[in-house]
């Protein structure tokens, strides 16, 4: 969480724009890692389990949080 001037408002980190270069670096690294996972498994298709493993390694997911929980929290259906 980012420190807010008003204690009553809650600002999500995702509301702040990312520098385009850092987002490109992150997405490039993400695709490289997913490619490595599929190559290691001798597949050409990225599976959901590959993404879950990557999210666990990056610290976004734990045994208590699933990918569905992250999707519900950060990708609203609005």
CATH class of the domain at 34-78: Mainly Alpha
Strand proportion: under 5%
**CATH A-level architecture of the domain at 34-78:** Orthogonal Bundle
Distance between the termini: 22 Å
Task: Name the structural class.
Answer: mainly alpha
* Count of DSSP-assigned helices: 3
Keywords: Chromosome, Nucleus
Pfam families: CENP-T_C
Family: Belongs to the CENP-T/CNN1 family.
InterPro entries: CENP-T, CENP-T/H4_C, Histone-fold
Question: Would you kindly provide a written description of the structure presented here, covering whatever features stand out?
Answer:
The protein is mainly alpha-helical and 78 residues long. Helix content is 51%, strand content 0%. The chain has a domain at 34-78: Histone, subunit A. It has three helices and no strands. The two termini are 22 Å apart. One of its GO terms (biological process) is mitotic cell cycle. Residues 22-78 form the CENP-T/Histone H4 histone fold domain. It comes from Eleutherodactylus coqui.
